[in-house]
Structure formats: C-alpha cells, structure tokens
Amino acid sequence: MNILILGSGGREHALAWAVKQNPKCDRLIVAPGNAGIAGLADCAILDILDGDTVAAFATENAIDLVIIGPEAPLAAGVADRLRAAGLKVFGPSQAAARLEASKVFTKEICAAVGAPTATWARFTDAVTARAYVEEKGAPIVVKADGLAAGKGVIVAMNLAEALTAIEDMFGGAFGAAGAEIIIEEFMEGEEASFFVLCDGQTAIPMGTAQDYKRAGDGDTGPNTGGMGAYSPAPVITPEIIDRVMKEIVLPTLTEMVRRGTPYQGVLFAGLMIGDGQPRLVEYNCRFGDPETQALMLRLGAQALDLMQATAEGRLDRVSAHWADDHALTVVMAAKGYPGPYAKGSEIHGLDLLSEDSWQIVFHSGTTSRESATVADGGRVLSVTCRGRTLREAHERAYQMVDTIDWPEGFSRRDIGWRAL
Ligand SMILES: Nc1ncnc2c1ncn2[C@@H]1O[C@H](COP(=O)(O)OP(=O)(O)OP(=O)(O)O)[C@@H](O)[C@H]1O
Ligand SMILES: [Mg+2]
Fold first, then answer.
1. Which of 75, 296, 300, 346: CA 20 to 30 A from 320?
2. Which is the closest atom of ligand 1 to the Cα of 187?
3. Most ligand 1 atoms within 8 A of CB, residue of 133, 155, 214, 287 to mutate
4. Is the CB of 153 inside a 6 Å radius of any atom of ligand 1?
5. Which pLDDT belongs to residue 219?
6. pLDDT, tens digit, for every residue of 62-80?
7. E-assigned strands of 217-353?
C-alpha cells in the first residue's frame, strides 16, 4: 500500500512510525512532515487545507489510503474532496467533523440523545452572557463555539475571569470562532481521553490516555497543547468504557447516521469522571497530540490495519489487541511556550539515543539545518517510552530527556505522577 499522512507534528510522526512497522506499507509520504518524519518517510510540501490539491497529489502518487492527522483539513472538507476523487480516507467528512468544529453542535447532539455532559447555554451577545454568569456564579466555563487551536476555553475560577472571557470572545479574540459562545457548568472530577474508531456503522474502543495540559509541574502555569501523556488511563476502567459507549458514544454515532452525516474516523471523547460517572467534556474528530505518541508505541503495526479497516467499513471484523504494557510521552518545548518563543536553536544528543519499539523520540516541531536538527515550533520533541509498568516507562523517558542537549528547551518533570 502507498500511504499519505497529512500533518507535521508529533502525532503524525507517531502515526508514520506505526504505519511503517506494518509490512503492508510500501511507500509512505507525509505532507508537510518535519525533520524527524523525514527519517522514515518522504516529505512533500502541499497545502493540506486545499482538498483539490491533496486529491490531485494522492492520485498522481497512486495513494491507497490517506490518513488525516489534524482537525483543520477535516473541518475544511478535505476528506470529502478526497472521497469524491475515489480515494480511501481515514477521517470524517466536514459535516461529521462538526463534532469538534462546533461546540454548540456537540451540545445539541448530546441534548438530542440524552448523553451526560455539563449543563450549558449558548449566547451571541455579551449582555445576556454576562447576566447568565452573574446569575450562575463561579467557577464556570466559557467556550468559543468554533476551532480556536486549544485556546478558546476559559475555565473561570471567579466571576471577573468569566466576565473578561466574555468581553474577549465577543471582542473578536477568536475571530468568527467566538461569534457564538457557550457557558457551561464547571465539572469536578478526573479528566481522561477515550478513543473510538468508527466506520460509519460500527464503533470499537481503541484506547485510553491522560494528558497534561498545563506548562508547569504540579499542573501550574498556562494551558498548552499538551506537555505529556500516558496510556492506558487507569481511571477509564472496563465499566467506564461500557458506560461511555452505551450512554455517550454509540448514541452520538447513531444520531449522526440519522442526520445523514455518518462519522468515519477516530472519535476522541474528552471525559470528566466524577463519583464513578463519566460525562462528556468535548469531542475531537482526530487523534490527540501528545496522546497518540503513547498510543502508537503500544499499538505498533496494527494501527495501520485498524485505520484501513475504518476507511473500508470493516470494523465489524477487527479489534485492537493491547499488550499489558504502558507508554508515556514527555514533550520538550521551546522556553517561553505557550507564550512567545524563539525558533532555530540546535538540538544535540539525539544521535546518541538508540530507538526501538520501547523508546523513540518523535519530533513535534523540528527542521534540519545542514546536518543539525533545529527547533521549529513551540512543542518540539515528544520523548516516548514503553514499559511493563508505568514507572518503567516514566524512568526510561526521563533518562532520554536528560540525554538530549537542548538548553533552549524545557519539559515537565512530573508526567505520569498522577497514576504512579
Ligand atoms: N465543563 C467543564 N468543567 C471543567 N473543566 C472543563 C470543562 N470544560 C472544559 N474544561 C477544561 O478545559 C479544557 C479544554 O476544554 P475543551 O476540551 O472543551 O476545549 P478545546 O479547546 O476543544 O480543547 P482541545 O484543544 O483539547 O481539543 C478541558 O480539557 C478541561 O480541562
Ligand atoms: Mg477540542
């Protein structure tokens, strides 16, 4: 098979690595890719938001399967264009990707099927939104409806923060994504990520993880795209999986079919688990970054079989086989991230690290300059290790982090502590 992966982060490096483990993979192209991905696949410069460009490229290169990594091309309808051109795709249509691209849409689906989630209200003007938070009080959560690169959610611990968030959102801080907002109940509990594969008809659970959003140790500092993760997430027990499938995921997928927009791809359910009760925080229509780095190291070659079965509507005949292992990923980011940071510093020591199916440094944002690997983003490396226990994976990962010589970078030191 010839395979094209769209994206350029640690998630896509991990997907590329897993696909490459499978003997069915002949040629692998990643667009646009990064310096780490270039070590195992051909990289191609493409406008991945332009469906026609991607379709023409995939057809020319005899691509048998396109795997779409990030949400932006999905929300832009790239999967629809590819399918219209007769290509096989892993990833939902534009209409189905609304489960991530519109928080109002997801709340309406939850309401239609009775899926447990935070109570909520929607607003298109600041005056009524302000009155609502003044009536409800803090803590309270203010969310822009549309895609805002992980920045459109304010968990306000006091009234002033909530009021500022409302001003910012209607003041245009998130552009059109904030033209409508949601204000919802603050949910207590433990958060975890649950991944489900769906081929439009059949859905199968494919893994669990927990991630670390704050920049600093002990969950302090600003929110980021994710500073680390581990899989499995012990809080998502088999009983919780049953309940989430029955109460949240399957009703959602049935409702999508009923509306004529079946969901195909990975559905990422962000859950809050309090008092043994799972509630939906959000859906994403793609794999999580950095959760995928941990998931892929555990799944290996079967990731390709599962994504292919999803794209071909054969999920009723497959399942994910998990070993009794644990994987953990530590993100190394440029100092300053998630605020302003510098690009272009050199990273040394990567060549001293051996890589195998137990430990890999996935690249999140790198490029090459002459023979050096240089930082080219906020999140730069995802050091990912597997172990028979989480502790083993944790220790191995931090040994690798400490071998990497990159004074301009930083990482959290406590990834995995919650479960250890
Ligand atoms: N109702 C809530 N109660 C408590 N915390 C919440 C609530 N809603 C969101 N959060 C917190 O805010 C984070 C971001 O919210 P959400 O997942 O809806 O936004 P997002 O921008 O789509 O995130 P992502 O970038 O992960 O897709 C959640 O991971 C959770 O920690
Ligand atoms: Mg989201």
1. 75
2. 3
3. 155
4. yes
5. 94
6. 999 999 999 999 999 999 9
7. 220-231, 264-274, 277-284, 326-334, 346-347
